[in-house]
Amino acid sequence: MSNGRAVNGFLLDITGVLYNSIYKSDGVAVPKSAEAVNFLYQHSKVKFLSNAKGNSNRNVARRLQRLGINVREEDVITPAPVVAQYCRENKLRPHLFVRDDVLEYFDGIDTSSPNCVVMGEVEEGFSFDRINRAFRILIDMPKPLLITMGNGKFFQRVDGPCIDVGAFAAALKFSTNCEVLNIGKPSRFYFEQGMNALGMKPEEIVMVGDDLMSDVGGAQACGMRGVQVRTGKWRPDFEKMPVTPDLTADCLYDAVKLIADNGFRL
Amino acid sequence: MSKISSVLIDLSGTIHIEEFAIPGAQTALELLRQHAKVKFVTNTTKESKRLLHQRLINCGFKVEKEEIFTSLTAARDLIVKNQYRPFFIVDDRAMEDFEGISTDDPNAVVIGLAPEKFNDTTLTHAFRLIKEKKASLIAINKGRYHQTNAGLCLGPGTYVAGLEYSAGVEATIVGKPNKLFFESALQSLNENVDFSSAVMIGDDVNDDALGAIKIGMRAILVKTGKFRDGDELKVKNVANSFVDAVNMIIENKVENG
Fold first, then answer.
1. Pick from A159, A182, A205: which residue ends a domain?
2. Nearest-CA distance from A121 to chain B in Å?
3. Where is the protein localized (chain A) (predicted)?
4. Are the C-beta atoms of B18 and B51 separated by less than 8 Å?
5. pLDDT at A1
6. Which residue range(s) make up the domain with B210?
7. Which has the least CB within 10 A, A22, A190, B10, B155?
8. ipTM score above 0.90
């Protein structure tokens, strides 16, 4: 990669790249991710593109700050506010399957007689009763529409992989034959939020993530370059999968250092 | 049209809904028995054969326990044959059909209808067994939803589909619409199975009707239970209820398909 093309901005995934999640706690920072973030704020441009669906951008940033990672709230992009905006623009009346912490984004949106279901996560988890409510609403719609905040198969917690919202979206699609609209990575619409926030063309941007298909493959499909880190949900068998990262590094810090040492080219 | 000699009858939604018989179904069943052999085939995964039988008796049906062919029995046969040690996501009431099966160090996940166990904790445990220990995924059935007195409720298939997506595997389906399930039920009536003279009566357009048609049986879809408007467009023989379905058979009006 001695020459390569210029890298003018970075999109960083959060969970599994900046920190690893632990059940019912703030989690633990990935070593030297704080330094990497500080370095990018000083020497490049950086935004944080996450599929985190349980917390407001303010609380996502605060959690990272508590872990010593200085991320500014205004640089965080999560699906909930993007979904809310999508509902406003398309005059959708959602049945909300979301945590209280992100309800503020849906203020002023009509939720009576729903014509779509918006699914993130809820306080009590994906209980049968909660999923069944979403199901009954969907099956009665003439054209059932399910908007999901990401469609991840699983997320990595320190104690092991945990089933994620994508499983429940696949489940509801099986039962209701609904259309599933993912507003989260790897959808192009969602990556565009990151490009717009940086104010750059895709070819100027590098996306760094731990999810090969969603972060790396998704970014590449939009014309960005995708960097895989060996943290979070990374597995050795990723190398057999049909996506080839533009760069693979042991952690975010190493990825940033490699690109910076190459004169911000990749 | 050739005469119908064997009839497979779904239970829940077809001849009863929970504790209530479909009106007239008891008499219709007696009438049907004078014309053809019958077997009750059910994907109900939350109750043992003994409980199912008890319910039919309580609803006023004259049925022998041996006439009921359930996906739980078929699942047990599969587990024994493959030496599976399952992690069961199954209603406690069904567990008596799995007595004596070892569950140590699971190498399979067996899913039935167990709403109180359908949550992220249990599913994550199942997911880890499949993903990390290569456990097999067995669906006692893959039903999408069913009718209850409280309204439509999701079936086990929904959760099976979710696990298939996340773990990147395909489940083995034991109950309807698996060909082996229909075939085993018919074989218990006639050693030489003849699909073309057999009919399936049920309320599930996918698992009962289309499943039977796919293997060369005929099917009658009843407009009770989980029947939804539009289902009738997918099959040729549609009856308002089990009573009408029996009349169609007796009058030899069941078309192919």
1. A182
2. 11
3. Cytoplasm; Nucleus
4. no
5. 52
6. 6-43+177-250
7. A22
8. no
